[in-house]
Structures are given as C-alpha cells and as structure tokens.
Input
Amino acid sequence: MTTQTILILVLIGISAGILSGFVGVGGGIIIVPALVYLLGMSQFEAQGTSLFVLLLPVGVLAVINYTRAENINWKFGLVVAVTFVIGGYIGSKIALKISPSVVKLVFGIIMAFVSVRLILSGFNGLSNES
Output
C-alpha cells in the first residue's frame, strides 16, 4: 500500500467513525461509497471490505460469503477498522455536545448526498450496459 492509499483509508475510517458516533451511521453509507469513489474498488469489494470492518457486530455470515467470492481487501479493511474506532469516539463526543436538531440535519444532508450519488451511478451503469 502506498502512503497516499493509507492516508485515504485513515480518512475513511476516521470519517466513518465520527459519523457513526455522531449520527449512528458509517458502514454502508460512508465506507462503501468512499472505497468505490476514492480508491476505485468494485461495489462488491467495497461492500465486503465494509462488512469486514463491522464483522463482529454485524456481518459475520455476510463476510464469509464475500470471503468465498474473494471480495474483501483485508489490508484496507484493517486500516479502516482501526481508525473507525478512533473516529467513533470523536464523533460521539461531538454529538453529545450539540443540539439533536443539528445532528438530525447533518444526518439528513449525508443521506441525501449519498442517495443522489447512488441514483446517478445506477442510471449511468444502466446506460453503459445497453
């Protein structure tokens, strides 16, 4: 892994952790799109790697399936997992010090942004398949 890749992975982990602690999201909403758009992973590899990060609490069986299909990047997953923990601590500290309305607003903006990106990506993918 290059230094640039490690820095991107650390930023993904910290961001996902902060948002997880801040508004209760991180895995599929932050990690998957970041791995796809910033590091060029396939959708399935990004999903598998994100599930690896959340392995114990969420997706043991799903990770087994992604492992069998060879769709997990273990090195990337480890870097994001470690930094995700740090970010989760930071995000929870921030969230508990500000208004719940601000937290709801941030969460809604993130959901809207990611939704639009996924919708446009889906349409682009459909038009490229024709």
